Amino acid sequence: MLFFAFGICYKTLRRQTWKIFQNQFQKQTTTASKCKYFTSKEENQNYLEIHHLVPREFSYEFDTSIEFVDNYIPLCPHCHRKIHKAVDRERIPMINFLFNIKKDKFKENNLLKTVNDKNLDIKLLHKFYHVNEEEI
Q1: Which residues pair with 16 in a beta bridge?
Q2: 88-108 and 77-85 are packed helices; what angle lies between their axes, rounded to 10 degrees?
Q3: Contact 128, 92 (CB under 8 A)
Q4: Where are the alpha helices (DSSP H) in 28-130?
Q5: Are strands 49-52 and 8-9 parallel, antiparallel or unpaired?
Q6: CA angle 99, 132, 31 (to 5 degrees)
Q7: Mean pLDDT across the stretch 20-46?
Q8: Cα distance between residue 64 and residue 122, in whole Å
Q9: Secondary structure (3-state) at 98
Q10: CA 77, 126, 32, 16: dihedral to nearest 10 degrees?
Q11: What is the structure's pLDDT at 81?
């Protein structure tokens, strides 16, 4: 099934996005030590999933697009589910680690200021991920 919104076919968009970032994934080695890799039948390489460090649902918070290479993080399926679904005490170190290695690239792409002139810092990123501040 194809989904269209604002004249965009999301199946085509995903395919194009994947091609654009596929080469970048091979350069990045930003995975946790307990990765659960398996070999992709299509690529004959470790299967990785795209993760947006700044989640898409918060793109409206920024004047500039969040769709740039360094906002995409290659994660194994286990780590990708972990960053979205694990309890906060297990995912906070992962979120912090990824933000710390990417924040300079975010600065280069003018993504450290929101439309409300807030700084994109770890506290705001935790808010985006619905982290319970009491667990920090």
Answers
A1: none
A2: 100
A3: no
A4: 77-85, 88-108, 122-128
A5: unpaired
A6: 30
A7: 64
A8: 19
A9: helix
A10: 50
A11: 93
